[in-house]
Amino acid sequence: MRLIEFLDQFARKPGLRENILLQSKCGIRFPEDNGTPARYDFSASHIVNSAEGILRRLSTDYLDVLLLHRPDALMDADEVAEAFGQLKASGKVRHFGVSNMSAGQIRLLQSRCEMPLIANQLELSLHKIGWLETGVHVNQTAARNDIFPEGTLEFCQMENIQLQAWGTLAQGIYSGKAAGQQNETVHKTAALVQQLAEAKDTSTEAIVLAWLMKHPASIQPVIGTTNPERITACGDAVHVSLSRDEWYSLYVSSRGVSLP
Ligand SMILES: NC(=O)c1ccc[n+]([C@@H]2O[C@H](COP(=O)([O-])OP(=O)(O)OC[C@H]3O[C@@H](n4cnc5c(N)ncnc54)[C@H](OP(=O)(O)O)[C@@H]3O)[C@@H](O)[C@H]2O)c1
């Protein structure tokens, strides 16, 4: 079903809404013709206007979850709390969360918001492995590419903030699209994913997602595809079980060098 048809049905079928969990995000502003660059905006007016605009476009009355997309360098936690409070009181948004935020940023925001921040959406995948590298490099001199904010994974687990992963399929480089890649490590990892998929009679997408979901942080993958076959292939991940050895084989293959 195309998105436009879905939205049409969504608006016409009153019972449909309660069976769907709707999450959206706000806080990024696009460049403007007058030369104003792309920027972040957590002002109360932008947050409230964004949420109302989403509701209008989806012809619905409420969002289940609203996330702040990327940290605004000018974030005023009190102002965000005011906007969240307004949206909650009017029933327009039920729950709130963040995306791409560090433990420190979430702590600051949570200290001003009455409602719990329930989710943090980050780039976590078999390709973007900073979320694991930060941990395995503790007390190591050879830290490499550890741009993931230290302690964030642990903080979210301790505070029951759901970790959602974006970029999970890494544009398909381990699940059918490695051919265009120059990187030998990517090719080897894609071959291992393929081998595991054949051995477990499942899709390569399912292996990539099951690898992410095996982590005890209960990571929820967000998938970007709108291709029905790929959605089905991704859904198979819930039936896949990877052993510790298989999980580590994929991790070590993706990092391209042995663990410290
Ligand atoms: N919070 C954030 O900052 C942030 C940033 C980016 C995205 N997101 C969210 O995350 C969701 C996931 O998006 P993503 O871009 O990160 O996702 P992704 O799921 O890693 O990648 C999806 C893209 O990869 C393509 N792809 C996957 N497997 C492929 C294959 N074997 N061959 C060719 N193409 C393949 C898909 O194409 P097809 O459509 O053809 O399958 C799709 O365009 C988005 O919907 C968005 O909500 C959040």
Helix percentage = 40-55%
Main sheet strand line-up: 1-4-5-6-7-8
Q: What series of H and E elements makes up the topology?
A: HEEEHEHEHEHHEHHEHH
Radius of gyration: 20 Å
Query: What's the name of the CATH homologous superfamily of the domain at 1-123?
Result: NADP-dependent oxidoreductase domain
Highest CATH level, the class of the domain at 1-123: Alpha Beta
CATH architecture of the domain at 1-123: Alpha-Beta Barrel
Average predicted local confidence, pLDDT: 94
Distance between the termini: 48 Å
- Give the distinct bound molecules: NADP nicotinamide-adenine-dinucleotide phosphate
Principal-axes geometry comes out as: globular
CATH-derived topology of the domain at 1-123: TIM Barrel
Secondary structural class: alpha/beta
Explain the overall architecture.
The protein is an alpha/beta fold and 260 residues long. It contains 10 helices and 8 strands. It has helices spanning 3-12, 44-58, 77-89, 103-112, 130-136, 152-158, 184-199, 204-213, 228-235, 244-255, and strands at residues 23-26, 28-29, 39-40, 63-68, 93-99, 117-123, 162-166, 220-221. A 6-stranded parallel beta sheet has the order 1-4-5-6-7-8, covered by helices on one side. A two-stranded antiparallel sheet has the order 2-3. Helix 8 (204-213) packs across helix 9. The longest helix has 16 residues, at 184-199. The protein is globular and about 50 Å long. The model has no long low-confidence stretch (mean pLDDT 94). The protein binds NADP nicotinamide-adenine-dinucleotide phosphate. The site of NADP nicotinamide-adenine-dinucleotide phosphate has 21 residues, from loops.
